[in-house]
What does this fold into?
Amino acid sequence: MVSVMGAPERVTPYQRCTRGDGVLDNGLAVFEFEGGRLATVRTSITEAHGFANRRFKVMGDKGTILIEPIESQGNMSGGVVKLFLEEAHGEYKKGAQTVKMPPFKDRYEDQWREFAAVLNGEMANPYTYEHDYLVHKCHLQACAMPIDV
It folds into this structure.
């Protein structure tokens, strides 16, 4: 989310225990950004068929993109991408459409190749320390964990 939206002004976590084991198994975090923009992250260990319902959705005044499910077959990337546009843009028409995705592959493969290239000095790390710090800080805030600086 940090890569898409930048740094949030505030993160508000909501965590609940729905079973008798004391585990916080149902959570929602609301991220508030400049200009009144909001983002939410929701997770629940108790959701029936929850893995199949994982999605990534970005909405704006010019359109919406929805990737659902994120993984279609275990770790295999290639979920269905739906695009909803207010106006035509390039090869994409105005209105609702399904975007053709490349063939399925392991979603972590490219990340491991990139990581190895960084470790071997073949490429610079595409993420700054500031980016990584912000990602971890947001994660801790979303989990209602203390941030010790």
In short: Residues 53-105 form one domain. The CA atoms of residues 54 and 143 lie 19 Å apart. Strands lie at 10-16, 26-32, 38-44, 56-59, 63-68, 71-73, 76-77, 80-85, 95-99, 105-106. The chain is about 20% helix and 35% strand.
